[in-house]
Specification:
This protein folds into three domains: 178 residues, Orthogonal Bundle (Triger factor/SurA peptide-binding fold); 107 residues, Chitinase A, domain 3; 99 residues, Chitinase A, domain 3, CATH 3.10.50. It contains 16 helices and eleven strands. It is globular, with a radius of gyration of 25 Å. The two termini are 23 Å apart.
Length: 439
């Protein structure tokens, strides 16, 4: 395939000037950016393109996610080079026929959209920030998330189970870069006890009654698509009438998949219960290991009583630990529902403050070594649990050393090695994939 050599330094010089106006508009005049008809193409990579609006969206996202209001040349290069790299890998994904199921995609889009709405406070605020409607935000997110999944799968296909570093590589990395390593942030060495609120029989009954009423309406001749749009709690598919799209066997949880693959096109299941709630499934098409289906999901309603039970359980357990009736480690083994850490007495190791969410930071900020936190809710409204932490040790921000921070340095050495290998691979891809930068 024809390949065009690209002078990235020259491209970034023009790109910098182009973005000065964009960022000035965003942060000086308050005008937001939007996707426009007749979008200008600023790069062609294989069969894909990078549009001016794509770049605008990425700039705003990057600056907001990193709480930045100014930029420099390195930020510009990072964003644009990342987009080019992604497009090159996507071109490789297209060559290799990488597939993403609609169910997997819709779940991730729904979760990400909820995070954005929470971050901005409301859908209206989100629309105003990006200058586009929620529907368009969702469309862009869907494209981005599908692309990111494909990118990761191509990388996995290329690099297998992953890249590792030897001890000697870590030592050499530290020798070469110790003076330029960023400080290690404040860090907590933690043990945890995790409790997940139970789905009560009352919640199950409420969901089942609602789902049965919907099923009765279907049996009386109501339109499946209309009922899905108006009633399904799977908001990612509800907009499309519950359509999940063409999906390969293995894409769904077992109960859902077993029921769906027993159907013939046009048939509808009775109620199907999974960990998510009650489903009503209609098969549209089936071909070998692939099906196209619609569904209506009725989730189990929230039950505050179940939440309070776990909060009070953890508080009572903390009192017993503080009174010496049981150790935190033994309590974690006996009562934590996070099986992996429970096997190691609840130990999860050293966690940097930048890897904790805001509620966890509040719970831990006033604790010294040996302290036990209040129960704290971790996760979103769909999937969450209550965590209680024991602070085995606490470290202030400091310069990394091999003696105290080998794991941290090892992670940085691994990232460096991964980036080097990825960079070399990208250069190889450029030899066979068309690249044309237009700014």
């Amino acid at each position: 395939m024809h390949n065009i050599k690209v002078n990235f330094k020259k491209s970034f010089y023009f790109l910098k000037n182009f973005l000065i106006a964009i960022i000035f508009i965003v942060f000086s005049s308050g005008i937001t950016l939007s996707q426009k008809e007749g979008d200008r193409i600023i790069a062609i990579i294989g069969n894909g393109v990078i549009l001016e609006s794509d770049l605008n969206f990425q700039i705003i996202s990057f600056l907001k996610q990193n709480n930045m209001t100014t930029y420099n040349e390195q930020v510009i290069e990072h964003i644009f080079q990342g987009m080019i790299t992604e497009k090159l890998i996507l071109a490789k994904a297209e060559q290799d026929s990488i597939y993403v199921s609609d169910e997997e995609l819709n779940k991730q889009v729904d979760n990400r959209l909820k995070q954005l709405v929470t971050q901005f406070g409301s859908e209206k605020n989100l629309e105003e920030a990006y200058g586009i409607t929620i529907i368009k935000v969702k469309k862009i997110l869907k494209e981005q998330i599908e692309q990111s999944i494909k990118v990761e799968r191509v990388k996995q296909q290329k690099f297998g189970s992953g890249i590792t570093v030897t001890r000697s590589e870590v030592l050499n990395f530290y020798k070469d870069y110790k003076d330029s390593l960023s400080p290690v942030p404040e860090t907590f060495e933690l043990y945890e006890i995790v409790r997940v609120p139970k789905i009560t029989e009352e919640s199950k009954l409420q969901a089942k009654i609602k789902a049965q009423a919907i099923l009765d309406s279907l049996k009386s001749g109501a339109d499946f698509t209309t009922l899905a749009k108006n009633n399904s709690d799977d908001h990612g598919s509800a907009e499309n009438g519950g359509i999940l799209g063409k999906s390969k066997k293995g894409s769904f949880v077992k109960e859902f998949e077993d029921a769906a693959f027993l159907l013939n096109p046009g048939e509808v299941t009775d109620l199907v219960e999974t960990e998510f709630g009650f489903h009503i499934i209609k098969l549209i098409d089936k071909a070998g290991d692939f099906i196209t289906a619609q569904h209506i999901l009725v989730k189990y309603p929230k039950n505050e009583t179940a939440d309070f039970e776990e909060i009070n359980f953890l508080k009572d357990l903390r009192t017993k630990i503080q009174n010496g009736e049981i150790s935190f480690k033994l309590a974690a083994k006996q009562f934590s529902q996070e099986q992996r850490s429970a096997l190691d007495s609840g130990y999860i190791g050293k966690v940097g403050i930048n890897n904790l969410d805001s509620l966890e930071i509040i719970a831990l900020k006033d604790l010294e070594k040996g302290g036990i936190s209040d129960p704290v809710k971790v996760g979103d409204d769909r999937y969450y649990a209550y965590y209680m932490y024991f602070v085995a040790d606490r470290f202030t921000e400091h310069i990394a050393t091999l003696e105290s921070d080998f794991k941290v340095i090892e992670e940085k050495a691994l990232i460096y090695k991964e980036q080097k290998i990825l960079s070399d691979w990208i250069e190889e891809l450029k030899k066979s994939i068309y690249v044309d930068i237009k700014i």
